Write the structure tokens for this entry.
Amino acid sequence: MTPSSTHLSEWNARLKRLVQIGGPFLGLLLVGLFFALAHDEFGEPARNTVLAARNLKTVLVQTVIVGIGALGMTLVIVAGGIDLSAGSVVACASVFGARLVVAGWPTGGVVLAVIAAGAGVGLLNGTLISVFRLMPFIVTLGSMSIVRGAAKWLGVNQAVSIPRESPVVALMAVNDPDHFLPLPPGVWLMLALGGLTALVLRQSIFGRHIVAVGSNEATARLCGVRVRTTKLAVYALAGLCFGLAGLLQLSRLTQGDPTVAVGLELDMIAAVVIGGASLSGGTGSVLGALVGAFLMALLRNGTSQIGWPNYVQEIIIGLVIILAVGLDKWRQNKRT
Amino acid sequence: MTPRLQLSGIRKAFGATQALGGVSLEVGPGEALAVIGENGAGKSTLMKVLSGAHSPDAGTMLLDGRPYSPADPLEARRCGVAMIYQELNLVQHLTVAENIVLGVEPGRWGWVNRRERRAQAVRVLAELQSGVDPDAPVSALTIAQQQLVEIARALVHEPRVLILDEPTSSLTGVDVEHLFGVLERLRQRGVSLLYISHFLEECQRVCTRFTVLRDGRTVGGGDLASTSLDQVIRWMVGREVKDLYPRTPHEIGAPVLALNALAGREKPRCARFSIRAGEIFGLFGLIGAGRTETLRTVFGLDPVRSGEVQLDGRSETSTTPARRLRAGVALLSEDRKREGLLLNRSIAENLLLTRLHPVSWCGFVRPQAERRTARSWMDQLEVRAQNEHQAIGELSGGNQQKVAFGRLLYHQARVLLLDEPTRGIDVGSKAAIYLRIGQAAAQGRAVVLVSSYIPELLGVCDTIGVMCRGEITAVRPVADWTEHALIAAAIGQSLDIPHA
Ligand SMILES: Nc1ncnc2c1ncn2[C@@H]1O[C@H](COP(=O)(O)OP(=O)(O)OP(=O)(O)O)[C@@H](O)[C@H]1O
Ligand SMILES: [Mg+2]
């Protein structure tokens, strides 16, 4: 190769990587641009309402639950699996947490217990999937129903309210709605956890093993990756994220409701996919998933602010998901 | 007479990689042309352009004098250009017959005519004299049988041009002879053949003319009969390759690995041999003799039914690949697409996966160290790629193989279990790999080399064992073997026939 062509190829590779991570950001930019130009039904420019700092704060808070769930979901999807029980785990964790708060547990104990319960469900899923080699789709479809049932049983079929003074509520409380800062602790939690997950997935040995298992399980085994342990750990970690998301759900609603978060797992999956992951495993970006979650929250919030009916939102979100996957496919085709 | 196929000035780039930079060639009806070149020279890309899998950036193609530009492989097949790809492309869940007619199913209104489908499959399978059951699921076949199914698939549509990209890389003697017989018959029927192989002897058997590609350009060609192989290799590599089987002097030390009447799930039934440090042990046999299974059982990928594997004199009742790797035993798989590599991941990731500790700190991989290590290995192995972040699936077959082999060297394995390590590798790089195997032995590593290529076994091994129907039937020093004796032993004949 001549020097200039090596140079070119370096650039090309860099550009590709930029598009790879930049994909979801590009979508976000487009949506932002749209709201910067749009007007609501009263002729008010949306940039003063939707894109105002105080509203963006609201959108961020609305992102947190799906966002934290999407972190766990990214791990699962990169490892070549899927977890449909996420929404049920969120609901169940919120009821469980509420019962503990009502029972007078200290806050630290509540947090640990709820997270551990989420991880426990994940561990069960993981055991069935990795040790008994059952399909992740089916196993988690089953546990989705089981855990939802458990949530209703725990709540005796109704929502369990907790006192507004409980420290758990402070996790998602918006104290100064007129200013962007301070952000509620939940938002910082999501960002910090996102950074950590991204680091682990991209740079840790464990992360490399997750990717290897998702990319080609046979190869991973050949290369000495402990496939079962890795999968087990992935589902447990994902369950942990879902449990945490449930805790934040409880904080936000100030009640543990066994009927919330139906279909939330699909939002998480959508966020992960918009973020550039492939459902066949082996690729995915944590940062992308967070951007994807934020993008969906912004779309929902923004379109309702400018007065578009609910069904339009749903259609648009569906289109965005398909567009994201289509873009990904197109980018891959470019390479071959 | 107009040529059957005429290409001129074909160019194709992938991003910044100019895979083809102006290729021209011509084949007449009933003629067989060998397309020769190093790994990454652009052979497969050229054939994919021809078969409609890629569209060229520039250049013209004429088929029987008429412009030819297929939009996709199906259209190419309809025009009578069929291709057998370097990598197997069968649908594992479907049966042999279903695979053979896939995309050209006989029938009406979207309903498949099952009887007709089976008849077509049976016809082409009979033509190949393959003995493959048309109703068997493809996943149950060996690689050699799958290869035959691929060939059968190409024949269904009465091709005018048949392209074969390294078709013999997973076949052994008898199957290769079959294939050559079939090719000869096709040629006499007027089918033109484009034949790609890294085995120049094969090219001489099948083809009359050849053309050489280097760096995506046509650099030479002519009659195979009137050109010496040295000349062909010089064109190909751009320099002289003096020694095809370089030997590094190495000393044989203490026993490392011993198999005592080892039996696996089905095969091996009774494998018994031992290797010492610094020894290169060749394992020959027909496809299906159980060589691959033996390696897999030793490595812990397949369960041990009875017998034992002793490593350094100790035997473990059950083991896993992870444990074997920690003990310094590594395996190179014969099937890099299904098992050997993470195709959508980078070269660096694939190369370093089994031993990430040296490039990491507290469980986290250091990007700098990773990049540096990967680069230095890529240089040593002469891997042709844009950079270490390129997805390995984008490399040419031979370059993928180099990375797969490099992983074992990087792992610093003491025992290397190599299953067809030079599959799909060009002459120059093969010599480099033999050199590496020799060096590994000189450093006191033990090597088990499974190969179907006899000259290679005779050229590099110290000892050769032959497997026949799941058992090791003979183990002798290399000096006591001849090509003839190896084949005789592999098909289970008495070993005492006179040497040819
Ligand atoms: N899909 C792709 N994307 C990017 N580069 C590619 C792609 N396919 C091939 N290349 C590049 O094009 C060049 C030619 O590759 P090709 O597969 O045609 O080589 P080849 O002559 O068939 O080699 P081999 O003998 O190893 O099979 C290589 O440098 C390869 O990396
Ligand atoms: Mg090739």
Observations:
- Residues 466 and 474 of chain B are 5 Å apart (CA to CA).
- The radius of gyration of chain B is 23 Å.
